[in-house]
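User: quick one, fold this
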Amino acid sequence: MKLLLPATFAAFALTVPARAQVLDANPTVLHAAHILDIEAGKILSPGEILIVGDRISASGTAVPHPTGAVVIDLGDTTLMPGLIDAHTHLFLHPGAEDLQTVEESVPERVLSAAAAAKADLMAGFTAERDMGTEGAGCADVAVRNAIDRGEIPGPHMRVSCNAIDILGGHEDAIGFNPAQRVLSNADYANSADQIIEVMRQQHKEGADFAKIYETGPDHLTGDVFTTPYQYTEAQLAEAVAEANRTGSFVGVHCTGEPGATYAAQAGVSSIDHAYFLKPETMKLMREKQIYAVPTFAVMEFFAQHPEHPADAAKYQAELDYHAAQFKKQLAAGVPFAVGSDVGPFPHGTQAREFELMVKYGMTPLEALRADLLNGAKLLRWSDSIGQLKPGFNADIIAVPGDPLADISVLKHPVFVMKDGDIVRRKPQHNGAN
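Assistant:
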């Protein structure tokens, strides 16, 4: 265990590596009133975890206490794996998304992304999938690498560079004076060959996976949801084949049909947003274990903080529609991962997504399994994150209360550890160390 000095996080002093100063390197035992066994779906009491270096050595109700081990008593809390957000935007913040690309330089946005990564980590998210830099190219690779080198605090990251989009598609620079040649927030690809070319360039620059815009713009009229598709099943299948060639994967922004059917047929890894899915699409997703990532929290934020007051009712109607469709998807056995779409709303607040998934039909255990087990699989890290098993990363949080009884406790972690480093610890007021 390495206890990071609080001063490390007081500011972004990039000349001082975030892991440079530690208080000790002895084995560490975390002790708390409870521990979550996510596979068994149970809270065990008490809870202990033995950490050696950056890995979990043992966990359960009692673990060995090696000579010289540091014992940290976290009192009346529940130990559990660090959270996973499978849909984030480090390079976005609240405000007009299209103007951030125009008004803010890439260096400015990189600094903002570093602050966002820190906020997410402090909120207990120790692993994330960044779904596009919104016009900052492959700058998320630089942020990921700086985190991996210990130069800045942040979660383990899977990054995609820019999203891939058709000319005039979702997130293109529409509505600006054409003479100004405002750049798109995505990389253009209008054919399968161009998709592959972009993917190869992004892979060369360090992308872990490809994000593709498959639908948009969306329209909800009464109970009828429509959204035009952008790529055919054949085009998406070629993208998936290219990703498979390099051991990568494809996630799609996709809110409805027929784009969702095309994406499922092509074998993408996730369909993000998934407002509306046909029964045959849900069946395909269940059979192929393609994850739906609902992203409720961002739509709730838009409904509560509309840019124009008249938009509030529109966003609320979309949220209500999505919630009703989510219940149908649950009943159909669609597999889910947890992603919030954080960025358009403040980083570090995205545990609200768990509350909404429970509000709209999941049990707390189902939401936690979607996050920790399915999220780890989606990020291709199922052998190292999402569980408190020997050999797994020492990515651990402690929350007050019982998350299986009250999912809202995820919003208030009192302790956060990543790779054996303590990055957050709130003082205990019950006599615990």
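User: anything notable?
Assistant: The chain is about 30% helix and 20% strand.
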